[in-house]
TrEMBL record, chain A:
It is found in: Nucleus. Residues 148-163 have a biased composition (Acidic residues). Its EC number is 2.3.2.27. One of its GO terms (molecular function) is single-stranded DNA binding. The keyword Metal-binding applies. This is Postreplication repair E3 ubiquitin-protein ligase RAD18. Belongs to the RAD18 family. It comes from Dacryopinax primogenitus (strain DJM 731). Pathway: Protein modification; protein ubiquitination. PROSITE patterns: ZF_RING_1, ZF_RING_2.
From TrEMBL, chain B:
It catalyses: S-ubiquitinyl-[E1 ubiquitin-activating enzyme]-L-cysteine + [E2 ubiquitin-conjugating enzyme]-L-cysteine = [E1 ubiquitin-activating enzyme]-L-cysteine + S-ubiquitinyl-[E2 ubiquitin-conjugating enzyme]-L-cysteine. This is E2 ubiquitin-conjugating enzyme. Its EC number is 2.3.2.23. It holds the Pfam family UQ_con. GO terms for molecular function: ATP binding; ubiquitin conjugating enzyme activity. InterPro entries: Ub_conjugating_enzyme (IPR050113), UBC (IPR000608), UBQ-conjugating_AS (IPR023313), UBQ-conjugating_enzyme/RWD (IPR016135).
Length: 379, 177
């Protein structure tokens, strides 16, 4: 499957998920998972929480979800709720924004540690048989995900001059006393109640990478938050925060009244009554979600978002009809026939009492379907 | 490339589907019980799942193919799941469509008994649904019958039901004796 081109087509950031982190960094996977919206599975965007139960979502995601259907309930725990229970989750937004800045560096450190460890093991064993796992990399030049061999993307000098995070000389901050401690000593140090530590004279190495990490990409994270604290927030506190728009039950309104609603918001009056209502309802959703974001968009930008939503929706409707009638037989045959044939061979074997009939684990991971050639007929 | 359909697909749904696909291909399903992915790269909204019959049930040894069709407002609305070829099972319609509460929204209520706690919600996922369907294969729910004849057989003559299921599996695998 060509994830890369599909992704390029969304025109947005790459698809990330907790499994980007190596398996033995379970804590980082957990951290990554907790900072994701359970609806869109992306890192939170303008997170809000439901005062009725405490679960958090992107503002837009939960507003869209509560718009559907008559029953209003938390999608995670199904406790009844309503739009008025949506509250900004300020600390979560700050955490997520900081994490977004740090993520690529954390990821680099983790992957780097793994590949160095592997290389050490390989050179110790004197074999180089293990295939290197491919991983997704986003190329900043053309915004396309590519599967690259890890060694190809690492700059030459990193071999010696950069930090090994698993290096026994690396320093970490003790979470208890905040002093620098050798990574190899940290557990013993905490167990011993934080005694003073002897540090090696050459403590530059570990610091370089962690300093980069703390500064975020190009050192921007720090300044971004500084700016926001100094500028944006004070601006906002000087004038009362804008109020969310109230929902409307359109069925009690005349056509004229619905047009009035559109006019009040400065929205187009094109299309039929159904489109007016959908346009107005979506405007309320976008507008209210925008109030929950610390990086609020301008009204003009929001109107462009609304236009885009309407265009997409119109095309979706058309596409839906088209899809109903079309059977995608070609792609189906191409991608699944061989795979399916192989499973059938296995299943036959198992039904007929031979023992190796289980699905091969990790089947889906291989890029190429397994060749079966003529086995199917001969079984 | 997505080609012509590129502009038409809702990007939220597409991103969410790609995330789920990536997770399924990275981790694989628990115990390798199923695999799932888009049928063709032209359309991320049509998936196929290959499901192993659960062990210790008459479905053991079978491999079943199901088509998953996603709405453009996924995950707000659930997807549809249809076995192709159809499976002989109390909760699967003779045309292969799966009838299971996790694929029904709280609003849409074909069976009044269904608890809303078992219904679709946008935090559900393809993996959770397919695992629910696998456990449904093992334990049919007679209250939400979709194949009436099969329900009766399951209730009144369990060994004949099991024989029919096993026969169906052999036929689907092309084993004739
Ligand atoms: Zn979200
Ligand atoms: Zn909740
Ligand atoms: Zn300490």
């Amino acid at each position: 499957m060509d994830l890369a081109s599909a992704l390029a087509a969304t025109g947005s950031d790459d698809v990330s998920d907790p499994s980007d982190f190596p398996e033995n960094f379970g804590d980082l996977r957990t951290l990554d998972r907790t900072l994701r919206c359970p609806i869109c599975k992306d890192l939170f965007n303008a997170p809000v929480l439901l005062a009725t139960c405490g679960h958090s979502f992107c503002s837009l995601c939960i507003r869209e979800a509560l718009k559907e259907g008559e029953k209003k309930e938390c999608p995670a725990c199904r406790i009844p709720t309503q739009e008025s229970s949506i509250k900004k989750n300020i600390v979560l937004e700050e955490s997520v924004e900081a994490y977004k800045g740090a993520r690529s560096n954390v990821l680099f450190l983790a992957n780097d540690a793994v590949s160095r460890k592997r290389r050490r093991e390989e050179s110790a064993n004197g074999t180089d048989e293990t295939p290197r796992p491919k991983r997704m990399k986003r190329q900043s030049s053309d915004h396309v995900l590519q599967s690259v061999d890890e060694d190809d993307e690492r700059p030459e000098e990193s071999e010696d001059s950069e930090v090994e995070i698993l290096d026994s000389n690396a320093l970490v901050d003790c979470p208890i006393c905040n002093h620098k401690v050798l990574v190899t000593r940290i557990n013993a140090h905490i167990d011993a109640g934080c005694p003073e530590e002897q540090l090696p004279s050459d403590k530059g190495k570990g610091k370089v990478q962690w300093a980069k990490l703390l500064a975020g990409p190009g050192g921007k994270t720090g300044s971004k938050f500084g700016r926001r604290g100094a500028g944006g927030d004070t601006d906002r506190s000087s004038s009362p925060p804008p109020r969310p728009l109230a929902k409307v039950s359109y069925h009690t309104l005349s056509n004229k009244q619905v047009r009035m609603l559109l006019q009040t918001q400065g929205l187009a009056e094109t299309g039929d009554r159904k489109q007016w209502e959908q346009r107005h309802a979506q405007w309320i959703t976008l507008y209210n979600a925008n109030l929950d974001s610390s990086k609020a968009k301008s009204t003009d930008q929001l109107k462009r978002d609304l236009d885009k939503w309407e265009r997409l929706r119109a095309r979706d409707e058309k596409e839906k009809e088209a899809r109903m009638s079309r059977v995608d037989a070609k792609g189906y045959e191409k991608s699944q026939n061989e795979h399916f044939a192989k499973l059938i061979v296995q299943a036959r074997a198992s039904v007929q009492g031979k023992s190796n009939g289980t699905l091969v684990k990790g089947e889906a991971e291989s890029d190429k379907p397994i060749e079966i050639s003529s086995d199917v007929e001969t079984v | 490339m997505l080609g012509g359909s590129k502009k038409t697909q809702s990007s939220t749904a597409l991103r969410r589907l790609m995330t789920e696909y990536k997770q399924l291909t990275t981790h694989g399903a628990p115990d390798g019980m199923f695999t799932a992915g888009p049928i063709s790269e032209d359309n991320f909204f049509e998936w196929e799942a290959l499901i192993q019959g659960p062990e210790g049930t008459p479905f053991e040894g079978g491999v079943f193919l199901a088509r998953l069709t996603f709405p453009t407002d996924y995950p707000l609305s659930p997807f549809k799941m249809k076995f192709d070829p159809a499976i002989f099972h109390p909760n699967i319609y003779p045309n292969g469509e799966v009838c299971i509460s996790i694929l029904h929204t709280p609003g849409d209520d074909p069976h009044m008994y269904e608890l809303s706690s078992e219904r679709w919600s946008p935090v559900q996922s393809i993996e959770k649904v397919v695992l629910s369907v696998i456990s449904m294969l093992a334990e049919p729910n007679l209250e939400s019958g979709a194949n009436i004849d099969c329900c009766k057989l399951y209730r009144d003559d369990r060994s004949e039901y099991e024989r029919r299921v096993k026969q169906m599996i052999r036929e689907q695998l092309g084993i004739t004796e």
